[in-house]
Structure formats: structure tokens, C-alpha cells
Amino acid sequence: MNGFRKFMMGRYGGDQFGMFLVILSIILCVIFLFIPVPYISLLSWVPLVFAIYRMFSRQIGKRQEENYAWLRKWGAVRTWWWNLKNRAKDSKTHRCYKCPGCGKKLRVPRGKGKISITCPQCGNKFIKKT
Ligand SMILES: [Zn+2]
């Protein structure tokens, strides 16, 4: 174990991006099981090899940058998905209207009949049926 620790000294090790690469590799491996093209399963090794390369890399700054860049992208994807899910759930109880004055999206409860909506951003008033 001591030898391994010495070997890992000054090397990058694991991070979230590395974890993602390993999971991606496993997912690809499963997907490729169902695709009858010879050697396509080798593609699932690409992210895994990259993950291993990053783990043993000595360019720690570069690897950290990669991880941060990935975390930002992943965060954006998660937010997008979260919004999509919320909107689907929301659409049963609420409706979205665009303010004709400034274009801001306004959320109003459904099933209230004709209501007057006041835009909180520009003060524009308009009437809609919900
Ligand atoms: Zn407005």
C-alpha cells in the first residue's frame, strides 16, 4: 500500500468528472450490447481510458480545470432538466403568460376564469382567461 501511495503522490486522483466518465463507460457498454456492430463495444472503453489517464495525470491544474468546466455544464443540464420537470408538473395547476409589455413570463393559477394580471416588472395590466 505504501508503494501505491508513493506512486499516487503528485498525481491527480479521482473527481466528479472522472466518476462521470466511468459511469458513462458502463452505460455505453450496456447500450453497445444491443448494437450488432463488431468492435463497437471498444468505444465504451474510451471514456474509461480517459478517466484512468486523468487519475494518474500529474497536470493537476489542467485536470481541475476540466472538472470545473464539466461541473458547470452538468449543473446547467441539471437545472434545465429540473425546470422541464417542474414545468410539466406545474402545467396542471398553473399557466404561463407572456407580459405583452415587457415579455416577462408570468405564472398564474389555472381555473380562475377571467382574471386581470399585473406584471410585477413593468406594471402592465392585461386580462386573460385561465
Ligand atoms: Zn411586463
UniProtKB/TrEMBL annotation:
Residues annotated as transmembrane: 12-33
Keyword field: Membrane, Transmembrane, Transmembrane helix
Descriptive protein name: Zn-finger containing protein
Annotated organism of origin: Christensenella minuta
